[in-house]
Amino acid sequence: MSEPLAQKLFPILTAADLPAALGFYRDLLGGAVTYRFPETGEPEYVALSFGAGQLGIGRQAEPGPPPGDRTALWVYVRDCDAAVARLRAAGVTVLADPATQPWGERMAVVRDPDGHRVIVADRGRTGER
Questions:
Q1: Structural domain contains residue 84
Q2: Model confidence at 63, in pLDDT bands (50, 70, 90)?
């Protein structure tokens, strides 16, 4: 069997009211913010840790209907372009081709068999977080 494609996977929730979501996940449930983008001003995205688990929360003015567009899974791979080529060759629907993001990671968006968004990314110039 070949080397596993995924190196790390975590869920991302979308929220119309990110401060309210942080109030629940950080303040009530005790998640620790480990990353935010942008670094100053109102965040558009935050990552929280819960022990060994992680959760991402991204701002989205009008979250779509479940399940397809309200949640996503983020999967880190060694090479985003190669991973998306492999997924596309297997018949996976690609919603967004690989592109370098403002924070330095290269990412693409695909759909799993049930229609959930899966973000496939490599760390680009950002390194390990």
A1: yes
A2: low
Q: For the chain, what is the mean pLDDT? A: 89
Secondary structure (H, E, C), the chain: CCCCCCCEEEEEEEECCHHHHHHHHHHHCCCEEEEEECCCCCCCEEEEEECCEEEEEEECCCCCCCCCCCEEEEEECCCHHHHHHHHHHCCCCEEEEEEECCCCCEEEEEECCCCCEEEEEECCCCCCC
Q: What domain range includes position 68? A: 8-122
Average pLDDT over residues 75-84: 95
Instruction: Confirm whether 95 is domain-assigned.
Output: yes
How many domains are contained in the chain? Answer: 1
Domain-located, residue 65: yes
pTM for this entry? 0.74
